Structure formats: structure tokens, C-alpha cells
Amino acid sequence: PPPPQPPPVTGSKRKASDAGLSDPSKSGSSSPTSPKAEASTTAPVKKQRVDGPAQASSSGNVATASNAAVGNDTFTAGAGNKTPVKPQADAPVDAAAANKVKAITQPEIDALPNRVLKDFAELGYGNAAQLLAQSPAALKRLNETSDAGVQVREGAIHGRSHTSRNTSTQKVTVYMDPTLKQKSPEDAAGTFMFEMNNAHRRPQFDALDDDVRNKKVTSPSDYAEKKMKLEVEGMLHTGMVGRELAHGGHSELKNLGSFYTMDYMKYAKETEGKSANDKQAYRLDLAKTRMDVPHNGTSHRQVYENQFAGIR
Q1: Where is composition skewed (Low complexity) in this entry (predicted)?
Q2: Which of these, 12, 40, 42, 211, is most buried using a 10 Å CB contact count?
Q3: DSSP 52
Q4: What was the pLDDT predicted at 90?
Q5: Are the CB atoms for 291 and 300 separated by under 8 Å?
Q6: Are the CB atoms for 242 and 259 separated by under 8 Å?
Q7: What's the pLDDT score for residue 71?
Q8: Across the chain, which distance is largest between two alpha carbons, in Å?
Q9: Residue 133: which domain range?
């Protein structure tokens, strides 16, 4: 009789595919790569050393980055392999040079509103003249000096701009120190405005000198104070012009030192609501405080007292 058979296994049968061992011929994916084969495909490829010269670039006159020395500039050769020409870099922006006095064109000069501004621009202070043309207070004063025949020339005494009568024409003349062309248009415009204020008051300066000759003013210190007060009047008017330019957005207040703007603003604040006599007294006190301010090794007091001696 046949031997007894083992009892049947209960439950679901496990397929070969469940163990990941499916027949490659019946599957869409290849069999797993063997560890040995995987190592051979992922290991880094060892580069072979090639002796001999490097391959030349297709462009024979341009040096490539691969054969340029590290840390050295690269050059582009000129035509016909002549002397290499270094590439030109953009010139650095010079902020100081960008804010210097500049000349303007003749049509721009002709467009200026009065003669003294045109004369100022003709000397090369074009953008400074255009700046002053933005201030109503400046234009009013410069119209007056234009009508009075004030001249504008280049020149300096002791390194400073000045106002005097021309010895040959006897016309009141403002002389501009040429070194101002190396400064900002605000510096040049403020100096010009101050000297134009002195030119506007030239009849008062002349009358003061006559008082010395006629013995009406006999004290050197008295003469110096009176003359300083006339200059303070011009200083404060120049400061008012500077304030107009700053508040009109035509220039920055911090660049208006030559306009005496801070002096004017202090004066305006401290005399607000006061009488004309009080304002006059303030200006006289301001003149006295500026008498002994040192400048170029001297002071206004010394200069004016020497002038007094010359007039006597």
C-alpha cells in the first residue's frame, strides 16, 4: 500500500515574487546589480596623465584663464600679436570733482537774468551763477548792482576776493579769487554774493572814508567798528540768500558755510518780534564780536585800523 501523505498546508501560499525573486524574464525591471558590479560603476575614474603641451585655444591671440598665472592681470593682445593692451576699467567717481565750480555754455549764460550774473558766469563760475539765480533776494540785490554799473573781474588781495574801485575806471569792481574755481559752487556763489553786498554799500564805505578825511571820525577803533558793521549787514543779507536756496531745495544747508546762513538764522531767531533799534543794536554787537576773529594771520580790526591810518 502507498505510504501515508503529509497533511495539507493551510493558509495562502507565498509567491516567489513576495521574496523579491521574481523571474527576470517576466518582470519589467532588471535584476539587482551585484555588489561587485556596483562598486565598479560608482568608483571614481582615475585620470590619466597626458604628457606634452596643452591643447591650444581656437583663438590664438586670447589668453585663456586656464593658462594665465594666478593673481596676475590677464591681457588682450592687440592686432597682429603686438603689445598686449590691458582692458580699461571704469574711472572711479570723484565726488569732490563732481561738486566743483563748472563753466556753462554761452546760451546758458545768455539765459541768466542780469548782467553781473552773466559776467560772473563768463569768468567760469557758471553753475554758481545759476545757483544764485534761484534766489529772489539774490536777484533783487544783483539787479541793483547791475543797474549801478558794478563790474566783475578776477583777482585777489592776500588770497581773498574783495571789492574796490578800479584805479583806471574808478568803477566799483568785485574781484573774485580764482582759487574758488577749485571749490564748490556754493563757496563761489556765497563769496560773490557777499562781495556784491559790499559793492551795493560802496557809497556808505566811501562816506565813512570821507568822515575820516574830514575829521568827523577820529578814532581808529571807531572807524573799524563802523566799517565792520557795514560788512555785517552784507553778511546777514548773504545768509538770507543762503536760507532761501536751502529751503527752496536748490542746495543743502550743510554746504552753505560761505553764505553765513547759520549766522543769519541765529540773528533771525534772536531778534524775532523785536524793534528796529534792538535789531540794530544786535548787528552792532555782532560786528564787535567779529572784529578780532583771526584770518590769514591778522584780523578785521588790524586791517581796518591800518586803513584808517592810510586815509588820515
Answers
A1: 22-35
A2: 211
A3: S
A4: 53
A5: yes
A6: yes
A7: 38
A8: 170
A9: 98-311
Return the C-alpha cell found at 190: 556765497
Grid coordinates belonging to 242: 543762503
Under the banding of pLDDT at 50, 70 and 90, the label for residue 110 is: very high
CB-side neighbour CA atoms (13 Å) of 291: 21
The string of pLDDT tens digits covering residues 200-211 is 999 999 999 999
Is residue 120 classed exposed, middle or buried when 0-12, 13-18 and 19+ CB atoms within 10 A define those classes? buried
CA dihedral sign of residues 278, 279, 283, 289: positive
Rg (alpha carbons) of the chain, rounded to whole number? 44
Q: Which three cell numbers stand for residue 226?
A: 563802523
Q: Which residue type, as a one-letter code, is found at position 66?
A: S
pTM: 0.68
CA–CA separation, 153 vs 166, rounded Å? 10
Convert the pLDDT of each residue in 213-271 to its tens digit.
Answer: 999 999 999 999 999 999 999 999 999 999 999 888 777 666 677 899 999 999 999 99
- Rounded Cα–Cα distance for residues 204 and 244 (Å): 26
pLDDT at 4: 55
CA 174, CA 187: separation in Å to the nearest integer?
16
Q: How many CB atoms lie within 10 A of CB 123?
A: 20
Asked whether residue 222 is domain-assigned, the answer is: yes
Q: How far apart are CA 60 and CA 56, in angstroms?
A: 7
Instruction: State the DSSP string of 263-286.
Output: HHHHHHHHTTT--HHHHHHHHHHH
Q: Does residue 278 form part of some domain?
A: yes
CA 163 to CA 177: how far, in whole Å?
Answer: 11
Beta-strand relationship, 151-154 and 162-165 = unpaired
Q: At what angle do helices 136-147 and 220-247 cross, to 10 degrees?
A: 130
Residue 154 lies in a domain: yes
In which residue are the cell numbers 563769496 written? 191
What's the number of domains the chain is made of?
1
- What is the CA 44 to chain-centroid distance, rounded? 59
